[in-house]
Design brief:
The structure is a single chain. By secondary structure, the chain is of the alpha+beta class. The chain contains three helices and five strands. Strands 1, 2, 3, 4 and 5 form a five-stranded antiparallel beta sheet that branches.
Length: 105
């Protein structure tokens, strides 16, 4: 028997899971704009330092009782930067057969 997030996920669950996910105390952020959709609850977090996060948890009721996932959060307006490409070997002296085969020199 499954239930929806609006019933399974309460404010305390959201607060605890968010504090853990962000690694900050619950007293240093506020939660707003909660929206329940099926088993997923989306919400916005604003920290006392001004950072904003878009987060969600999932929740349901099952045979074992209430189940609420860990919070998944992404900082609003921050994009992940691509990793820099590997640099080729500095000289042919440091280039060996493995580096050549990998296209590193």
């Amino acid at each position: 028997m499954a239930g929806c997030a609006s019933v399974a996920v309460d404010h305390d669950h959201i607060t605890q899971r968010t504090a853990f996910a962000l690694g900050i105390p619950a007293s240093s952020f506020t939660i707003s704009d909660r929206a329940d959709s099926g088993v997923r609850t989306d919400y916005t977090v604003k920290t006392t330092t001004g950072k904003q996060y878009a987060c969600y948890v999932t929740g349901s009721f099952g045979i074992t009782g209430r189940v609420v996932s860990d919070a998944i959060c992404s900082e609003v307006g921050k994009t992940s930067s691509p990793k820099p490409a590997a640099k080729p070997a500095a000289s042919s002296q440091s280039c060996n057969a493995l580096l050549k085969a990998a296209g590193k020199c």
